[in-house]
């Protein structure tokens, strides 16, 4: 049944005073309650609701008919207040209506009942007398308490319709009741329910209902959910909630990174919340995608895995990287580890910029490779400008090729200039000027490049890695100023990379070295910085799992939040 047909029938139902019972049924998660609330609110705004009172009642945990009756009473609001939750004020109005219905003397009579329990039971019973000409939505029937029977609920619904002139909506989940209750529902369904709507929206309809047009990244999420054929509004709403958390975190990053975040989030949410559905790729399988996709896993694929791989390929998902795994953690927990996410986002963003720069530089070279036009001036300008913009991401081999071409075109001044630009932009990258370590060192043959690289490499030859510094301090009672300079320049991310890349019995000693400085009396700010950043990295490691939380605890790291 199409969404528009469901909407039309609901509008007719709301626009009539005639007492009747409407059932909306469908599979779990397709968005029956969400859609009912949306269409109800739309009808209210368009003044299409005839009756003046409304109550939404969930049977979650409801254990008796008297409890259900009183819950209906306390949930009643004016239809003009639809969209607002019941409050003290709405309860007061219901109480006034009750008083008017049975008379104030009857209310006073309740005060003379023997005990508090009797008063409560009496109120629950008497309050039901005020319910009439009310729209009542009854939801979560499958979650009712064991003390409440299906036949009793249906009997009350029939009474509300025939004796109280009410209009009742029942929201039913297919295949959610046990066999006995399902049989009872089938027996009484024809007598109680006047009209039944099957809610089975298409993925496109689900996206249109669940995703507001002004929502952050709405067009992207609609596109991705349609591609995966997600017809579960509950899952789409979870994706929306997480995407709203992404907006402030990834603001200012490359559009391609944001695209990947939403693309991965939609896929992972679909797989995670549909566990056990054979038509949906296994969540753990998707998280490990990479080796299997590229034929690097010797294990033979099952027929089901082959089907999953086709689905993933149609979705343009090829492999899972570290950034994707941070998205996965948010799907599982409902929130982002901001430090870990941004650390991976920073790395991925740099790769994206590098790839775009390489592509941009390659486009400039096409003016040389792909034509016989007389475009020398255009070629020189294009290469020169593109190189200046992308020097940080151009390989030394491509530097050499560009310089050789410029020299062949009598542009020695520009050739020498881009060499200096390259050195200036890459000077902090240790080892990049060591030509001897290049796999194709013979390709670096411009004399000026070779000379300048040797000069820069000589300046860096005394470079000592942080790992070497930490290793040298194990078992020592002192340190040099240069060693402190190196360690204090490390960020929490740097320490994280160092600690997580190490395996062996030396790891504990390394961590002790980095944490020792904040125990020193009158420690300098640089010493405190070393221990502070090392501690932050261990907190991050501890939050990754319960096992790691125990591992870092032996270094005195106590996590504030449970892992």
Protein model, in words:
The chain is mainly α. Strands 3-2-4-5-1-6 form a six-stranded mixed beta sheet, sandwiched between helices. Helix 7 links the parallel strand 4 and strand 5. Helix 3 packs across helix 6, helix 22 packs across helix 25 and helix 23 packs across helix 25. The two termini are 45 Å apart.
User: Major β-sheet, in short?
Assistant: 6 strands, mixed
**Termini separation:** 45 Å
Strand adjacency order, main sheet: 3-2-4-5-1-6
Number of helices: 26
Helix content: 55-70%
Uncertain runs are: 101-113, 115-120, 291-298
Mean pLDDT: 84
- What share of residues are in beta strands? 5-15%
* Rg (C-alpha, Å): 34 Å
By secondary-structure content and strand pairing, the structural class works out as: mainly alpha
Principal-axes shape call: elongated
DSSP summary, beta strand count: 6
Question: Secondary structure elements and their pairing?
Answer:
Blueprint (H helix, E strand, L loop, with lengths): L2 H12 L5 E7 L5 H14 L7 E6 L6 H11 L1 E2 L9 H15 L1 H6 L6 H12 L6 E6 L10 H13 L4 E7 L5 H14 L2 E4 L4 H8 L7 H10 L5 H17 L5 H19 L9 H5 L15 H12 L7 H12 L4 H32 L6 H15 L5 H13 L3 H15 L20 H14 L5 H8 L7 H8 L3 H9 L6 H9 L9 H18 L3 H8 L10
Helix pairs in contact: 1-2, 3-6, 7-8, 9-10, 9-11, 10-12, 11-12, 12-15, 15-16, 16-17, 18-19, 22-25, 23-25, 25-26
Key phrases:
563 residues, 6-stranded mixed sheet, elongated
Give the gist of this structure.
The chain is mainly alpha-helical.
């Amino acid at each position: 049944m199409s969404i528009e047909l469901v909407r039309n029938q609901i509008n007719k139902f709301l626009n009539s005073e005639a007492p009747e019972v409407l059932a909306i049924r469908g599979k779990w998660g397709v968005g029956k309650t969400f859609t009912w609330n949306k269409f109800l609110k739309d009808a209210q705004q368009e003044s299409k609701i005839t009756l003046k009172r409304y109550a939404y009642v969930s049977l979650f945990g409801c254990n008796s008919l008297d409890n259900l009756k009183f819950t209906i009473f306390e949930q009643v609001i004016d239809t003009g207040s639809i969209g607002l939750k019941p409050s003290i004020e709405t309860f007061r109005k219901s109480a006034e209506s009750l008083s008017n219905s049975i008379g104030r003397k009857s209310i006073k009579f309740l005060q003379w009942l023997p005990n508090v329990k009797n008063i409560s039971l009496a109120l629950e019973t008497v309050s039901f007398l005020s319910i009439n000409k009310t729209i009542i939505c009854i939801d979560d029937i499958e979650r009712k308490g064991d003390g409440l029977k299906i036949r009793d609920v249906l009997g009350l619904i029939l009474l509300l319709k025939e004796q109280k002139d009410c209009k009742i909506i029942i929201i039913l989940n297919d295949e959610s009741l046990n066999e006995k209750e399902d049989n009872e529902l089938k027996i009484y369904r024809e007598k109680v329910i006047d009209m039944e709507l099957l809610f089975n929206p298409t993925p496109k309809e689900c996206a249109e209902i669940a995703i507001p047009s002004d929502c952050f990244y709405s067009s992207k999420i609609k596109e991705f959910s349609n591609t995966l054929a997600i017809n579960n509004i509950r899952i789409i709403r979870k994706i929306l909630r997480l995407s709203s958390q992404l907006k402030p975190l990834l603001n200012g990053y490359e559009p391609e990174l944001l695209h990947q975040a939403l693309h991965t989030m939609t896929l992972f949410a679909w797989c995670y919340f549909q566990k056990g559905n054979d038509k949906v790729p296994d969540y753990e399988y998707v998280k490990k995608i990479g080796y299997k996709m590229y034929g690097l896993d010797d294990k033979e694929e099952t027929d089901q895995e082959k089907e999953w791989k086709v689905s993933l390929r149609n979705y343009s998902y090829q492999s899972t990287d570290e950034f994707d795994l941070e998205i996965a953690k948010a799907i599982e927990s409902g929130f982002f580890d901001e430090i870990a996410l941004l650390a991976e986002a920073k790395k991925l963003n740099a790769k994206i910029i590098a790839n775009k720069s390489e592509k941009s530089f390659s486009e400039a070279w096409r003016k040389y490779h792909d034509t016989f036009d007389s475009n020398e001036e255009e070629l020189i300008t294009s290469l020169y400008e593109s190189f200046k913009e992308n020097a940080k991401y151009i390989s030394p081999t491509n530097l050499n090729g560009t310089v050789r071409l410029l020299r062949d075109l009598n542009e020695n001044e520009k050739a020498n200039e881009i060499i200096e630009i390259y050195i200036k932009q890459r000077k902090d990258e240790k080892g990049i000027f060591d030509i001897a370590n290049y796999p194709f060192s013979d390709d670096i043959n411009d004399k000026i490049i070779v000379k300048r690289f040797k000069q820069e490499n000589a300046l860096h030859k005394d470079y000592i890695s942080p790992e070497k510094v930490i290793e040298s301090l194990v078992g020592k009672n002192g340190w040099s100023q240069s060693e402190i300079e190196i360690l204090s320049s490390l960020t929490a991310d740097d320490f994280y990379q160092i600690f997580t890349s190490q395996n062996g019995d030396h790891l504990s000693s390394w961590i002790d070295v980095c944490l020792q400085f904040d125990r020193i009396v009158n420690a300098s700010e640089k010493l405190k910085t070393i221990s502070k950043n090392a501690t932050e990295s261990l907190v991050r490691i501890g939050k990754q799992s319960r096992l790691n939380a125990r591992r870092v605890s032996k270094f005195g790291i106590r996590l504030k939040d449970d892992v």
